[in-house]
Design a protein that fits this description.
alpha+beta, 3 helices, elongated, Photosynthetic Reaction Center, Chain H, domain 2
């Protein structure tokens, strides 16, 4: 397998995948881990109308070319790959089916022989699981939005405008004498 680090593989997600003749297959989707070697060994290629189908391809010989990813297989071979349930991952039998389909050897090394001693030892093995994609949202905390009145005392000069009605008087025009009435 080519030594593609995990960051490179994650950056490849969503890129266009081409077959060896340059025909577009689809977009690179999920990565599948080979648990025996604890590395990503396969990737899903979203094919079909609107990327609704996924074909699994080995990562061993994928190469980058001008921003696209090229697999060394014909489009028909990729589209006819064994269907894998994306929610369960790849077990050993499914990896063997994929290896037979693509004519590759299984990426998993042979299991070591069991020790032939009468002593028994136990250990607890733990592992981390990488999950990619979107997951359902889980509530983390309860949040409330409240409106409160806050009073701040601020001293500031503010211009005040107002409308005022003013009475303006002019002397009467000359020659106009009005009868002022009885005096």
């Amino acid at each position: 397998m080519a030594d593609h680090d995990l960051n490179t593989l994650l950056d490849w997600r969503g890129r266009t995948v081409l077959d060896r003749k340059g025909e577009t297959l689809g977009k690179l989707g999920d990565l599948y881990l080979d648990e025996a070697i604890d590395r990503a060994a396969y990737a899903g290629v979203r094919t079909g109308l609107f990327g609704r189908h996924e074909s699994i391809v080995p990562l061993a010989r994928i190469a980058e070319r001008e921003g696209d990813l090229v697999v060394p297989y014909d489009a028909e071979l990729v589209r006819d790959a064994p269907k894998i349930d994306p929610d369960t991952g790849l077990d050993e039998a499914e990896q063997e089916r994929l290896a037979r389909h693509y004519g590759t050897t299984s990426a998993a090394p042979p299991a070591p022989p069991a020790p032939a001693t009468e002593d028994h030892a136990e250990m607890i093995r733990s592992e981390e699981e990488l999950t990619t994609g979107t997951t359902p949202m889980k509530p983390a905390e309860r949040v409330r939005l409240r409106k409160v009145l806050v009073t701040e005392h601020v001293k500031k000069t503010v211009p005040v405008r107002r409308e005022v009605v003013q009475l303006e008087t002019d002397p009467p025009p000359e020659g106009a004498v009005e009868d002022a009435g009885p005096a």
